[in-house]
């Protein structure tokens, strides 16, 4: 299927590895010009080189910086002649017990996983509407639908973004101008984030990370963790011309792990 987005410009956040990298790669394969951001310059440049080597690659620009800061956002936006496709993504806050989180921990989580996406949306959607095309995909978490107790900071911050998007996406001046805003909710994917959050509980249980994660893997109906490339493919479709009638939705990609009907 031709997604109809070749030549468009995309800004993909936290794209040096994991799900952000998977999304950037999928867009590059569709001929999209991509600006990728991340805090680690070395990993980001290595990813940019990989993306430029993909079949169909157009222009790939890498901007190192912290997207959760005003300066980081300004630098990323300045590198993108126009943002037709925005993929919001940021590393999740640390796991733990809510009794140990002070106000600063909560503010940091909300700033990264709610307010930063909102700021980038605010900076780009009016231009999208004026051009008659735009796609925003917010990478949130399957925990928005099925909260994970030790990821309370993420549960709270990402749920706030979800509620905000539910209203914004339905504004006629955006939806009526072919600008869609959707949330992409990953379940368990084989990423550094998955393994990183398992280190402490695995050590507490006296197990290796793989041993600790095995019951979780077996509990997934697909009997495996997801791959970043397949997540990216879903993101690319949401960015496509074919997804213009799909907005304000929470798309769960979790191998069937969520047991509910709705």
Task: Report what the structure shows.
This protein is α/β, with parallel strands linked by helices. It is built from 9 helices and 7 strands. The chain has helices at residues 18-29, 41-52, 70-78, 103-131, 152-168, 172-175, 192-205, 209-219, 228-238; strands at 9-12, 33-38, 60-64, 85-88, 134-139, 179-186, 250-253. A 7-stranded parallel sheet has the order 3-2-1-4-5-6-7, sandwiched between helices. Helix 1 crosses helix 9, helix 4 (103-131) runs parallel beside helix 5 (152-168) and helix 7 crosses helix 8. The chain is globular.
Q: Label the overall shape.
A: globular
Structural class: alpha/beta
Ends distance: 29 Å
Can you write the helix and strand succession as a string? EHEHEHEHEHHEHHHE
- Main β sheet profile: 7 strands, parallel
Tally of individual helices: 9
Mean pLDDT: 95
Q: How many β strands by DSSP?
A: 7
Radius of gyration, in Å, reads 18 Å
């Amino acid at each position: 299927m031709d997604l109809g987005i070749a030549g468009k410009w995309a800004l993909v956040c936290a794209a040096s590895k994991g799900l952000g990298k998977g999304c950037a790669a999928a867009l590059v394969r569709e001929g999209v010009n991509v600006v990728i951001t991340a805090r680690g310059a070395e990993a980001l440049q290595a990813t940019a080189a990989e993306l430029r080597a993909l079949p169909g690659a157009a222009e790939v620009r890498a901007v190192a910086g912290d997207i959760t800061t005003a300066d980081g956002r300004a630098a990323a936006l300045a590198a993108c002649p126009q943002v037709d496709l925005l993929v919001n993504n940021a590393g999740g806050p640390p796991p733990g017990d809510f009794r140990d989180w002070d106000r600063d921990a909560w503010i940091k989580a909300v700033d990264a996983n709610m307010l930063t996406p909102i700021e980038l949306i605010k900076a780009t959607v009016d231009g999208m509407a004026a051009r008659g095309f735009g796609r925003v995909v917010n990478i949130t978490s399957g925990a928005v639908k099925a909260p994970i107790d030790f990821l309370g900071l993420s549960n709270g911050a990402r749920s706030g973004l979800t509620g905000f998007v539910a209203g914004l996406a339905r504004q006629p001046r955006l939806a009526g101008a072919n600008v869609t805003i959707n949330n992409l909710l990953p379940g368990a994917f084989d990423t550094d984030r998955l393994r990183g959050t398992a280190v402490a509980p695995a050590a507490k249980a006296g197990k290796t990370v793989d041993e600790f994660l095995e019951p979780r893997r077996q509990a997934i109906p697909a009997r495996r963790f997801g791959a970043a490339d397949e997540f990216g493919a879903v993101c690319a479709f949401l960015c496509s011309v074919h997804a213009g009638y799909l907005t304000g939705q929470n798309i769960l990609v979790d191998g069937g792990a969520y047991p509910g009907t709705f």
